[in-house]
Amino acid sequence: MAEKAPAKEKTAKKEKALLIVESPAKSKTIKKILGDSYQIEASYGHVRNLPTNTLGFDVNNNFKPTFEIIPEKKAVVKKLNELAKRADKVYLASDPDREGEAIAWHVRQLLDVPEDKIFRIEFNEITPKAVKHAVENFRTINMDMVQAQQTRQILDKLVGYKLSPILWQKLGNRHLSAGRVQSVALRMICEREEEIEAFVPVEYWSIAADLAKESGELFSAELTKYKDKKVEIPNKEAADAIVEYLTNYQGYEVSKVTNKETKRKPTAPFITSTLQREASSKLGYGVQKTMQIAQKLYEGIELENGSVGLITYMRTDSVRISDDAQAAAKDFILNNYGEKYYPQTPNSYVKGKQNVQDAHEAIRPSYPERTPDSIKQYLSNEQYRLYKLIWNKFMSSQMECAVVANKAVEISAGDYTLRTSTSKIMFDGFLKLYNDAEEEDGDSKNKMPDLNKGDKLTLKKVNPKQHFTQPPPRYSEATLVKALEEHGIGRPSTYASIITKIQTRGYVEKLEKALAPTLLGRTVCKQLVRQFTEVMDYKFTAGMETKLDKIAEKKAIWNKVLQEFYDGFMPVVAEAQKDTGRITIETKVTCPNCGRPMALRTSRFGQQFLGCTGYPECKTILSLNAMTEMESQGQPTNEPATLDEKCEKCGGSLILKTGPYGKYTECTECKDRKPYRKSTGVKCPKCGEGVIIEKKSKRGLIFYGCNKYPNCDFTLWNEPTGDVCPECGSLIVKKASKKGTIISCSNRECHHKQELIPLEQEEGENA
C-alpha cells in the first residue's frame, strides 16, 4: 500500500487540460462552456515566421523553410510550454482555416511535450454543442493545409523580397514595397482611374409624357420605341423633332397590357465578401471595421449569463449551413411568422463542389433564437446593427419567396411607343426581414391608374431631358472586394489586410469613400506592370490561388508549385536589375523660385514632400499640401468665358467650367451642360458647315474632328493651323517634335515642304 501512495498523490496533482486559441477574447466564452477542468490560453496569432532579413527558405533543398520565433512572442511561447508540461492534454483550437491550421502546427512544433498529448480541434461557432463536439472529435493536424499556407507565405516573401529593392532603386525610396496580391489590387484601382480619365461623355436624351385617362387620372410614360425598334435620341435636334411630333399627335391609346406574377427568391446567407459589401452599402462601414465588429461578435459578447459567441466564423467563402441551424431557423419562422413563410422544401444555396475553405459554414447567428432586439441592451450600436444585418440575412435566406405582381402598359402614339409599368408585392415572404434591393419598400413608386387595352388617353405635357453618359465609378472598399473575388484574387482572410496595406503604403487614398490612386501609387504600378507583366496579371495571380487550393486538396505538390514559379520569376528579376535608371515622379506643381516642375520625393524617415527637379541648383521644397490643394479642386469653378458660341437650347451665354471629369460648358440661362471641346476656329473642309474641334478617343488620345459628327465624320490626328496646302488644297497641321513644331500638309501623299519652328523660337514667342 505504501508503494501506491505516490501514485495517488500524483493523480491528485493532475493538472487541467490546456486549450490554446488564437485570440484571448474567446477565452471567457469557451471557459463558460468547458468549465474549470480546462485552462484556456491564447497564442495571440502566429508565434513563428520566416526570418525578416533573409528569404528564409533553401531554393536548393526543395524550398525547405526556416522559421524563427517572433521576438514579441517569446514570452507567450515560454508560458504555453510551461502550461503544456503541467497539463494532461493539450488541445490546439486555432481558427478553422489555413492560417489557423498553420498556427496550430507551429505551436505544436514549439511545445516540448510528447506528440500523443497534443490534439487538434476546430469549431466554426463558439457554442456548447460545437465546442464540446470538437473536443470529443479531435484530429491530427492537416499537413496539406499547412503546406498550402507555407507555400503562400514563401511566394509572398519571394515576390516582396525581390521586387521591393527594384522599386527602391528605380524611385529612390526605400519605404516602398511590392506584394503578390496587394500590387494586383493596386493595378485594379489605377486602371479604373485611367478609364475615368479617358472617358468621353456622350450626350443622349430621354422623353417622357404626362398623360391622362378620360376620367382625369394622371400618370407618366417613357418613350421607348420608334417603329418597334428601340429609340435612341443623340442630341437636342433629334429630341426637338420627337417632342414636336408627340405634341401635335392626336390619338394616344393603350395598345398592350401585360400582367405577370413573378416569384422573387431570397439570396444566400453572408460570406465574407458579401457581408463586407452589404455592411458598406447599408451601414456605411469600411471593410476593416466590419471585420473587427464581426470578430468580436464571433469571439463572445457578455450577456446576462456570461460571454456568448453570437455568430459563426466570419472568414469564409462557403454558403453552406448546418442541419441544426436550418432546423432552428425553421422552428423560428414557423413559430413567429406562420407556415406560409416557410418553403415546402428548405432553401439550399450550395451548388456543385465547394472549395477547400468549406470546412465551415456561411456567416450566420450561432443562436437563431437570439433576435437582435432581445440582446440589444448588451451590444454597442455598431455591434447591434451588424448583428441585425447578419441575423436578418440568414433568417430571410430560409424563408419563402416573395410574390410580386407586375403590370406593363404600352401606349401607341403613331410611329412611337411609350411604356409605363408598376409592381405590387402580393406576398412579402422573405422581404418581411430583408431586402437586397436599394428600394426598401419593394413596391413600385410609379403610381399608375387602372389601364386597359383600347383606353383613349390625352396628352398633357411632353418632357424632354438631356443626359450625359457617366464614367465608371472609382472602387469603394466593398466594390474592390467584389472585383478581387470575381477575379479569384485573394481569399476571405486577406481582403481587409490588402485594402489596408495599399492605403498605409501611400499608394491609395480615400476620397469621399472611394479609393483613388496617388501619384506614387500610379508610378509604382506602372513600373511593376512594365517590368513584371506576368506577376501583375490578374489571371496569373488567380491561378496561383487555385494552385494553393490544390495543394490543400492533395492535388498538387507544394515545392513543385514553388519551383515552377521560381524558374519563371527569377530571370525576369535579373533582367529588371540590369535597368539601373532612376525615375523622377514629376507633379503638376511648379517651383515658386525657378519655375521648374516639382517632384514627389521621400525622406529617409518615409515622409513625402515636393522637391524641385532643379536640385542641387534649386533646393526648394514644399509640403504635399501644395499638390493636394491643386488636385482636390474637382468642384466646378467658373473660368473666363472664352467661347463665342451661344447655347443651342435657349441662345444664352456659355461659361466654361471644370468638373471632376474635365471641362464642360454651362448656359447662364437654362443651365444646359455639354462636354467642352476646344475649337480650332477652322472650318471643316468636308461639310463646309462645321468647325474643327479637339476631341479625345476612348484610349485618351487627342485628335481633331468636325463638330457636326455624326453627320460629318472628318477627322485629323494633328491640330490644323487654318491654312491650306498650296499644292493639294488639304489643311496644314502642326506636329510636335523634340526639336520644335513641324508645320506640314495633312495629306500624307503630298510632298509639300515641311517647316520647322525651333523650340527656342517658340519659347521666345511665348515669353
Q: Which features does this protein show?
A:
767 residues, alpha+beta, Rossmann fold, Topoisomerase I, domain 2, Topoisomerase I, domain 3, 5 domains, 6-stranded antiparallel barrel, disordered N terminus, disordered C terminus
Overview of the molecule:
With 767 residues, the chain is an alpha+beta fold. It has five domains: 15-141, Rossmann fold; 155-194 and 474-578, Orthogonal Bundle (Topoisomerase I, domain 2); 203-265 and 403-468, Distorted Sandwich (Topoisomerase I, domain 3), CATH 2.70.20.10; 272-397, Topoisomerase I, domain 4, CATH 1.10.290; 585-631, no CATH class. It is 33% helix and 24% strand. It is built from 19 helices and 35 strands. The strands form ten sheets. The protein has a six-stranded antiparallel barrel with strand order 9-10-16-15-12-17. Strands 2-1-7-8 form a four-stranded parallel β-sheet, sandwiched between helices. Strand 10 (218-226) and strand 11 form a beta hairpin. Helix 7 (182-198) packs across helix 14 and helix 9 packs across helix 12. The longest helix is centred in the first third of the chain and has 29 residues, at 143-171. The model is unreliable at 1-13, 353-358, 631-642 and 759-767 (pLDDT under 50).
